Every structure is written in structure tokens, then in C-alpha cells.
Amino acid sequence: PVQDRRLLCFPHVVHGVYNVAAMLTSSGSSLSWAAGALAGFDGDVDALLAAAASTPPGAEHLLFLPFLGLERFPLWDPRARGAFVGLSLAHGPGEMARAVVESTGFAVRAAIEAMESHGARVTELRATGRLALSPAWCQTRADVCGRRVLVSAQEEADLVGNACVGFYGLDEYESLAAASEALVRFERVYQPASPHRQLYDDLYAVFRGACVGLAESFRGLG
Known about the structure:
45% helix, single chain, 7 strands, alpha+beta, two-stranded antiparallel sheet
């Protein structure tokens, strides 16, 4: 078990194993907000993702802090607020869209960093849900986090996990691992693009610095 106030730790369904998790409040909701707030998207998240995909990685040196709700990671500060950092006349809706998409990846990277500080190894990301259907979102997540992203062939991937537990309980498989090997299939794999590694390492450092550096401003606004 992992003891860290930033993380959640529960006994796993597999005896002797633990599920270590981190919760992000403003991930998909950041995309929905941006699609409605930025000009030209009319609330269409798919249009926002398309604009992000056509914008170079790094969003022309623009960052977004996705703290639009009572965010938990990486700050655990209820006064934290969203912010565009580095905004200039050179930036338009495309760069802002790209920054929002990248920001949720930076938050996931911070969660991975916290897990690995306790010895856990995060070797890959498995994406489910509506955003997993977007190649732009998955590739950006792979690039920002430096891990490959696997997308399930089954659209309701969470239910496949439930099925594995159920069939194992019915003695259809000798172990949960065997059930998983038989039932879980991946149809797409996104590898992190090595040319973007240094760029995202640098931007992630700025992202973490902005989270800390703006804390006093967030308190003032609150």
C-alpha cells in the first residue's frame, strides 16, 4: 500500500495487490469549457481537438492550467484557478485549444510522478471513454507523458473488466489474468514521439513552476 495524501489507495480485487489512483477533476470538463468559450468551436469538442491537432506541439509556448473546478491534482488547493500562461498576440483559438489539450496531459504526468516516487512503475496508459476515440488526444497524451497509450477494441472497456471478474468468479478461467488475456483486446497503440520529448520536458517544468508560483495569486482572487 502507498501512503500519500495526493493519491488514493484501495485493496485490489486480486488478493495482496493494491490499486493506486489519482483523481483529476478538470480533464474532460476543460475541453468542454474551451469548446464553448473559445471562438469558432460552438461547443464542439471534436472541432476543438481538430484545431489542437493542426497546431504544433507546445502551442507556440503557451500553457494552460486546467484548474476550473475544485481540482485535486497536482495542487490539492481548493483556491486554485485556471489560467493561460504566456498568452500573446501571436496566439489564437488553435494555440489555446492545443494548450488546453496538453494541460490535462501535464496533470496526468504529475500523478504518474507522484506514483513513481513511491516505487510504482507506470509503463503505459490505457485510455477509455469518448476521448479515447480521438487520435489527437491520445497522441498528445502519449507525447506529454512519455508513455505509450493503448485504446481498447471494446468501447465500454470498464465493463470488460467487470466481465473478467464475473467469469473468474464463475470458474470460467483459472485466474483473473487468464480472463484478461482472453477478453481484453487493444485496437490502437500510440507511441510517444521522441522529437517532442525535450519540448514537453521543458514545458512540464514550467507547468509545475506556474502551479507553485501562482498560488499566492489564486489566494488573492479567492
